[in-house]
């Protein structure tokens, strides 16, 4: 949980001090990103935007049982994946994963969305790939806000110990070459607000590939959750 939520909300809305200070309460255990998501969407209806992941790693994740969309399908009451990557969508269907559609969510009147009421739209590691994240979120809510109750947005955390460690130890930035942004908890909240959304909760967790960072740093991460490498934000429209 974020300390001084009300004061920070004022800053987000442009009513607070020029400089903001965001800090999380210490936590008693560290959760992995998939488990955080699964707890939120358990037995709910979910649109999974950007569901395919990078095509280069789909098969490995399927073999290991760690493919997020397939896992979501098991824990939700209904899950529909949406992606603009034609090759990846076709690859999933060849592997028997058929609850995916090739669509651009910035376009209106996607019948598969319009015909339902969805508890959540999940955007897992999507927003950092988008040219203009504020406008992207605005367009989604303009097109489908009446069909979506809440959004779950997960992004890499620029303050993550594993990311900062690369910079401090080797003087290098190690990053997915398609990423356009590094987010922090505050800047993600600001983007959510500017898009006309209301932040309900923000959870710091560990990406599933980063478990080795716990070996020597567990106490530090428990006391300073802002050093965990993944941000999960839950939000809803203010309309």
Describe the protein's topology.
Layout: H1 5-12, H2 33-41, E1 45-49, H3 55-64, H4 68-75, E2 78-83, H5 86-94, E3 100-102, H6 111-114, E4 118-124, H7 133-144, E5 148-156, H8 161-170, H9 185-194, E6 197-205, H10 218-223, E7 230-237
Parallel strand pairs: 1-2, 1-4, 2-3, 4-5
Antiparallel strand pairs: 5-7, 6-7
Brief overview, please?
The chain is α/β, with parallel strands linked by helices and 239 residues long. The protein has helices spanning 5-12, 33-41, 55-64, 68-75, 86-94, 111-114, 133-144, 161-170, 185-194, 218-223, and strands at 45-49, 78-83, 100-102, 118-124, 148-156, 197-205, 230-237.
The residue ranges in which pLDDT falls below 50 over 5 or more consecutive positions are: none
Hey, roughly how much beta strand do the residues contain? 15-25%
Radius of gyration: 18 Å
Structural class: alpha/beta
Largest sheet: 7 strands, mixed
**SSE string, helices as H and strands as E:** HHEHHEHEHEHEHHEHE
Q: Mean pLDDT, as a whole number?
A: 95
Q: Regarding quaternary structure, how should these chains be classified?
A: single chain
Topology, number of strands: 7
Physical arrangement of strands within the biggest beta sheet:
3-2-1-4-5-7-6
The helix count comes to 10
Structure characterization notes:
It is built from ten helices and seven strands. It has a seven-stranded mixed beta sheet with strand order 3-2-1-4-5-7-6, sandwiched between helices. The model has no long low-confidence stretch (mean pLDDT 95). It is of the alpha/beta class and 239 residues long. Helix content is 36%, strand content 20%.
